[in-house]
Design brief:
With about 625 residues, this protein is of the alpha/beta class. It has helices spanning about 1-20, 25-35, 65-85, 95-120, 125-135, 140-145, 155-185, 190-220, 230-250, 255-265, 270-295, 300-305, 310-330, 340-345, 350-365, 375-400, 420-430, 440-450, 485-500, 510, 530-540, 550-565, and strands spanning about 410-415, 435-440, 455, 475-480, 500-505, 545, 565-575, 580, 595-600. It has a five-stranded parallel beta sheet with strand order 3-2-1-4-5, sandwiched between helices. Helix 3 (about 65-85) packs antiparallel against helix 15 (about 350-365), helix 4 (about 95-120) crosses helix 7 and helix 7 (about 155-185) packs parallel to helix 15.
């Protein structure tokens, strides 16, 4: 009981330390696991571990293969949660790159690392390729914390995020096939067995995942599940899918839960956010327990096997040769720049699936007397620990060195997805600006997505927004909701992270009626509150541009928009196409030159009719 409670307590402490130090939680978790496991045998009188995960006849938390059953079920929940976060819209620009990374990149890693492990450690080809199959995977649990604090282009973040989640079942599949090879033996029998196993895994994994995803979605939409049971029913269905798929095809459960999460994450489910919050919390707890258990399960003798220069050489080959080779081959002909490819090559930390399956297969093969099986678990754990430590400590610096670190974040985050917000976002997108709308009103989000806009259902009172790596390039914040309290809260909470270049909100009714009370973060003009913005967008749902002659011309037009309730000034567009948000103290711009334009929403200015055609958002 003390050991089990200790694991949970130590795991949560490690998660907190990782949060404070902005590190992947896997790092302190593995170190704690090694300390209470193999390292602790150096301090105890009888050479016992402080925490013994598997029953050894005298002590231990799990009997027989109980630990690995627990690991398998926990990984299924983690992968399902990862699948829920994958959105088709995120890969519009990088879909082919991700496809190649999880196919061609996996092939390069598999053969490259297998050959390296064989010649560096002198292992058999079977064990070498089992190790290389396991280290194919990266994993969202390690990628997300590393990227969270690095402002990158959305395309680069999306590539690494999707690769991390989608490659997990591929690595597991490859490892299973190699394990079957070792179990069956070489020759014709393996070829037939491998093909059969591969087909069964694909068939049952995709079938179970797709079918149960739609079945659960149907039950949620038809309110067949009471709200208070939604999370636990969803959890039980995930475990059911994993186990049932595994019964029909061994190790197909991982693929099934990823497919299930991916399908459900892209359906319009009314409670998807609540489900995601629950799975995130559960994943944090499971990851905290798993890594400590798996690291503690390693023996000191296994650590001594890889405490040498051979392990350093193998790790260097994986990081500096195999990963870059796979990335550059996979991204050949893509729109990614050389420096972006270089950064993706550098970031390739291995995660929970590699560690979990390595422990499972390593122990089974060791029990069967397979030569070299004792190397599987410590080598994979060292690769996991080494790549995570390297990327966690150097990714931000490396991003700056190669020039992918966004020194100026130009993305615009709009709080509230009302009609006016959608019009403004559409104009920004037409002008090549990355803009994201967030709202807790699903109807508004659906309308935004139908316009081709990037939008997400979110609660600004939740911390999930700060963890979203797709928002790393946000530099401007516009709070456009009809609730002044929400607008002010958004400004105060997200100013530093999303509004480093400017944080703005609509003025309140009280501020609009008090000329002396003109907030610095006010938007558009001192006469433009939410009501005026909505009325203008309802009567005249279009955005226009008018060319400016000089500053005096600009100030005159601003005065016209203030006196007309059907016009709202939004941006100043410079001659080179840069867009500047107009604040409520609208006349502060000094660098207005010929070729600049005033961008406004609503009725066409009389002076504009003979100058330029309106820019409308269909």
């Amino acid at each position: 009981m003390v050991e089990l409670a200790g694991i949970i307590i130590l795991g949560i402490i490690a998660q907190w330390v990782a949060w404070r130090l902005k590190l992947p939680a896997i790092l302190p978790l593995i170190l704690i696991g090694l300390f209470v496991g193999p390292v602790s045998t150096l301090f105890t009188d009888q050479g016992e571990k402080w925490i013994e995960p598997i029953w050894n006849g005298e002590k231990g938390l799990f009997p027989g293969e109980g630990l690995y059953y627990f690991v398998s079920l926990a990984i299924s929940i983690i992968l399902f949660e990862g699948g829920l976060t994958l959105k088709r819209s995120e890969i519009a620009n990088v879909g082919p790159v991700i496809t190649k990374l999880i196919t061609l990149g996996s092939v390069v890693t598999f053969f490259g690392a297998g050959v390296a492990a064989h010649f560096v450690f002198g292992l058999t080809w079977q064990v070498s390729f089992l190790i290389s199959g396991l280290i194919i995977v990266t994993g969202p649990t390690v990628i997300t914390p590393i990227l969270r604090n690095i402002p990158l282009k959305k395309d680069v973040s999306a590539v690494l995020k999707w690769e991390g989640i989608l490659i997990d079942p591929i690595g597991a599949l490859v490892a299973v096939l190699v394990f079957e090879f070792i179990s069956v033996g070489e020759g014709q029998a393996y070829t037939q067995t491998a093909l059969i196993e591969f087909g069964k895994i694909l068939l049952f994994g995709t079938t179970f995942g797709f079918t149960f995803a739609h079945a659960l979605a149907f039950a949620i939409k038809k309110n067949l599940i009471p709200h208070y049971l939604l999370n636990v029913v969803s959890l039980s269905v995930v475990l059911l899918v994993f186990v049932e798929s595994d019964i029909f095809a061994h190790e197909s459960g991982l693929l099934a839960v990823v497919v299930m999460g991916l399908v459900m994450g892209n359906l319009n489910l009314p409670n998807i956010k609540e489900l995601l919050y629950f799975k995130e919390s559960l994943s944090v707890l499971l990851i905290s327990i798993l890594f400590i258990l798996l690291a503690a399960n390693i023996n000191i003798q296994e650590l001594e096997l890889i405490f040498n220069w051979q392990m350093v050489i193998l790790l260097a080959i994986i990081v500096f040769v195999i990963r870059p080779l796979g990335v550059f081959l996979s991204t050949a002909g893509s729109d990614l720049k050389f420096k972006e490819k270089l950064f993706i090559s550098w970031v390739g930390p291995r995660g929970i699936v590699a560690a979990g399956i390595a422990s499972l297969f390593g122990s089974k093969l060791l029990a069967n007397g397979e030569p070299g099986a004792e190397y599987i678990t410590p080598v994979v754990f060292t690769v996991v620990l080494g790549t995570v430590l390297l990327n966690a400590t150097t990714a931000r610096l490396f991003a700056k060195m190669v020039g992918v670190f966004l020194t100026k974040s130009e993305g615009i985050l709009i709080i509230g997805a009302s009609k006016a917000s959608r019009l403004i976002a559409g104009y920004l997108q037409q002008n090549k600006r990355h803009v994201v709308l967030i709202d807790n009103n699903q109807s508004n989000i659906d309308k935004a997505k139908k316009m081709g806009l990037e939008a997400m259902t979110a609660n600004i009172y939740s911390d999930s927004l700060t963890d979203n790596i797709e928002l790393n390039d946000m530099g401007y914040l516009m709070a456009l909701t009809g609730n002044p309290d929400i607008n002010m809260f958004a400004i105060n909470k997200f100013r530093d992270q999303f509004g480093e270049n400017g944080s703005f909100r609509l003025v309140t009714g009280d501020e609009m009626n008090d000329p002396e009370n003109n907030p610095k973060e006010g938007l558009f003009s001192h006469t433009d509150d939410f009501i005026k913005l909505m009325e203008a967008s309802r009567k005249y749902p279009s955005i226009h541009e008018i060319e400016l002659k000089d500053k005096e011309h600009y100030e005159g037009l601003i005065e016209i928009t203030k006196s007309d309730k059907n016009m709202v000034p939004i941006f100043l567009k410079t001659a080179d196409g840069e867009l500047k948000i107009i604040p409520s103290f609208s006349k502060e711009f000094e660098d207005i030159s010929e070729g600049s334009k005033l961008v406004y929403l609503g009725k066409v200015l009389e002076a504009d009719k003979d100058i330029t055609a309106p820019v409308e958002n269909k």
